[in-house]
């Protein structure tokens, strides 16, 4: 997780977060200038040069859901305070 521009006392808004499982890494970027996902096979591409997000939908979408669920868990306590 990289959230240097984010308040420590509020929900994650500007951040990048990654999830690594087995040979794969999914990174989620959430910044005003760019929002999106990147997905890499670290065994075949250790330099993360070839984004496989659109070509590996089964694995990337499973990891995406897991990562987004975790981000939602982290943000949940702040939802009550916003309004």
Describe this structure in words.
The chain has about 80 residues and is of the alpha+beta class. The chain contains 1 helix and 3 strands, in the order E-E-E-H. Helices cover about 30% and strands about 25% of the residues. A 3-stranded antiparallel beta sheet has the order 1-2-3, with helices on one face. A hairpin with a 4-residue loop joins strand 2 (about 25-30) and strand 3. The protein starts with 14 loop residues before the first strand and ends with a helix.
> By helix and strand content, what is the structural category?
alpha+beta
Give the low-pLDDT segments: none
Strand order of the biggest β-sheet: 1-2-3
Mean pLDDT: 94
Largest sheet: 3 strands, antiparallel
**Tally the helices: what do you get?**
1
Radius of gyration: 14 Å
Morphology call = elongated
- Classify the helix fraction into a percent range: 25-40%
Distance between the termini: 26 Å
The ordered H/E elements are EEEH
Q: Please count the beta strands (DSSP E, at least 2 residues each).
A: 3
Tell me the fraction of residues in β-strands, as a range. 25-35%
Précis, in short:
The protein has 83 residues and is an alpha+beta fold. The chain has one helix spanning 57-79, and strands at residues 15-21, 24-30, 35-41.
Sequence-ordered SSE layout with sheet pairings:
Layout: E1 15-21, E2 24-30, E3 35-41, H1 57-79
Antiparallel strand pairs: 1-2, 2-3
What distinguishing features does this structure have?
elongated, three-stranded antiparallel β-sheet, alpha+beta
